[in-house]
Amino acid sequence: MAEVPKSLECPICFDIMEAKILICDRGHSFCSCCHRRLKLCPFCGDSMIDTRNLLLEKVVKAYWKDPSTFRNRMREQLKVEMPVRRSLKKY
Ligand SMILES: [Zn+2]
Ligand SMILES: [Zn+2]
Predict the structure, then answer these.
(1) pLDDT for 36-78, tens place per residue?
(2) C-alpha angle 30-32-36 in degrees, rounded to nearest 5
(3) How far is the CA of 12 from the centre of ligand 1 (A)?
(4) Which of 6, 11, 35, 91 would disulfide-bridge 22, Cβ 3.0–4.6 Å?
(5) What is the pTM of this model?
(6) 7-85 topology per CATH
(7) Separation of 13 CA from ligand 1 center, angstroms?
(8) Domain RING-type: where (predicted)?
């Protein structure tokens, strides 16, 4: 089985996050199950808020699409986001 990146695990139940990821007032992320069970964040003690971590949800979605190639695809994406300006000055 492919290695699961740590940032995709819920820090409470250690399951890989699924569709809905919610955060506390300071931005710690939890799966929706743990978020529902906890009133206060176990890391900072702030209250849980009803805000979703959309960026992480996107990453998790990409992971579930094909876990075995997830790392390579993420690496490719990083390459695309770093523009190569020199190649534009050809003539
Ligand atoms: Zn959880
Ligand atoms: Zn917190």
Answers:
(1) 999 999 999 999 999 999 999 999 999 999 999 998 988 887 7
(2) 100
(3) 5
(4) 35
(5) 0.75
(6) Herpes Virus-1 (3.30.40)
(7) 4
(8) 10-44
Site of tokens 């979605």: 61
Q: Which ligand is nearest to the CA of 14?
A: 1
- Could you give the strand order of the β-sheet that contains 48-52, starting from the edge strand earlier in sequence? 29-31, 21-24, 48-52
Q: Using one digit for the tens of pLDDT, what is the confidence trace for 19-43?
A: 899 999 999 999 999 999 999 999 9
Query: What does the H/E/C string look like for the chain?
Result: CCCCCHHHECCCCCCECCCCEEEECCCCEEEHHHHHHCCECCCCCCEEEEEECHHHHHHHHHHHHCHHHHHHHHHHHHHHHCCCCHHHCCC
